[in-house]
Amino acid sequence: MNDEEKSRLNRLEERLYSRKHNENSPDERKELSKQEFDVKNTWESKEDPLNELLARQREISLQKGNPFKKILWGSISFFVIALVVAGYMFFVGENTVSVNKIDISVLGPATISAGEELSLEVIIKNENNTDLEGANLLIEYPAGSRVAGSLEEELTRQREVIGRIAAGGEGRRTIKSVLFGEKESIQSIKMTLEYRIKGSNAIFFKDKQYELAIKSSPIIFTVDGPKEINAGQDIDFDITLTSNTSEMLRNLLVKAEYPFGFSFLESKPASADQDNLWDIGDLPPGEKRTIFIKGSIQGQNEEERTFRFYAGIASEKNEQEIGAQIVSLTHSVSIKRPFIDLVLSINNDSSPEYIAELGEKIQMNVIWTNNLPSKLLNGKIEVKLSGVALDRSSVSPKNGGFFRSSDNTIVWDKNNNPDLAEISPGGRGVVGFSFSPLTSISGAQNQDINILSTMSGSQVLPSGPPQNVVSSSEKLIKLASSLNLSSRLVYYVGPLENRGPMPPVAEQETTYTVIWNITNTLNDASNVSVRATLPSYVGWADFATPSQENITFDSLSREVVWNVGEVRAGTGFLSSSKEAAFQVVFTPSLSQVGSSPIVVSDSRMTGQDKYTSKPLSSTKPAMTTRLTTDPNFKSGDETVVK
């Protein structure tokens, strides 16, 4: 026995015989707990225990999943799909067409000048193993495009027949057009390929967008006008179009869009429609056209008004609309409130223009307002009248004004109107006068009366000496032309020979001659016509003179119309009057015996003053068998007899 074993025996002996030994020694014997088991006395399963064990093993295997079985089924599925795809490609794949294997390429410029002929080469490549049948190329052009070589003809769509494109082959077409648009605008041409494949009636499509930029305009378009203006003042614009191409530009239109507060007054040339459209017509290479527009504008201080102007080619469908816009410009005007507001008013009409008649008495007021934040001292108002049509002897100032006939100026100051000595901020007042145009004028056309009103004064400043301020306002008085009609009914005299009994006899025909005579004073008149109606018992003899005059008779309305057209200024004064005559047949009834029946109803003339745009008219009363304008007429010739 070695020393270690002896040591262990000694420690055991001490523990057994020691008085300090722990009674709860871990080596103390303890009673074990009883565990009961439920053991079946008989077998419940009718199957062989071995088979049951194998079935349970398979169930556990299925629950956990068998990776080898999954791999097996995946391999089988892949093999079947591969066989199907291979078979499809072998038997069918040669007849399929993929749109991705059809390429549409366009050879052409990236930029072009508006109005320049554009030539594009379109190449269609078929990289499929099947032919494309019945191929057509559809081209859609941007708005305003034109046919190359015929700018008058609008181009919206085009169809190019290509036919069959063989497998691996290509089709080519060259298309030409003329595009219009503003400088630096992007124009887009859409191309669509339509095709069929053998054995199918379906139509397939392939699209292509081709874009290019407009690098320059065929028109140089400028607008010259003020940047600032006082409210109520006239504003003028000069619009210039200059050809910037070697081609003739046809059917050009210019259109204006006016801001709120603008009032159109006139333009040269005259507007074609609604005061904002001008028919320029054809513009040859290197030439230019100018439009002058005049109007007035109202608004509050510091407000801005924007005018828009467009130029382009007229639409084929509507000649009053721009079909292809070429250029556009905007022009902004800032409205400033004047130091002193001056308004010239005639019969509460403060527009910059007034249309008056010869000899008309005109009452005018000058309404002034101090818009300054400080007082205005020593106010002075001067109104200068000019124009050969002014009747200087008719000028009559009011409110203490003095008419200085040496220069046709009316003056108001603090000496004759105390209200002008000191004007408070926002102070307001009125002075007035009257005058008349001459009753008759000979000589040049369009003889206007111009009125220029000026108000000045010294503004009191918080520091320093007073500052002189001035404000002015103008008004134009246009004199309307006087278009006059005279009518005569004659038997014994006149350009046509009459027949029949005189005095007229019941149930027998007697002819009379109707003579219309027109005179015109200051301005050319347009669209002039004269009309009258014949009673049921008066017929149309179908004789009129001069033969070149357009005189017609409508048997249904029984209206006689003389379409005169234009009557020049001074007709009947500086040149002979305009005259026409026609013959009528009067067949009186027994019921009219002893009376003087009407032969022609009221004669009505209408027209338009080309300078003032004022409608003109003149009416003469109905004419009876009493021939007061026939020098050979005798009393009694007017009465119908049996």
TrEMBL record:
| Pfam families linked | DUF11
Q: Where is the composition biased (Polar residues)?
A: 604-632
**What InterPro entries does this protein's entry cite?**
OmcB-like_DUF11
Coiled-coil ranges per UniProt = none
State the superkingdom.
Bacteria
Region called Disordered, residue ranges: 1-37, 604-642
Q: DUF11 domain: which residues?
A: 226-301
Keywords assigned by UniProt, alphabetized: Membrane, Transmembrane, Transmembrane helix
Ranges that cross the membrane: 71-91
Record's protein name: DUF11 domain-containing protein
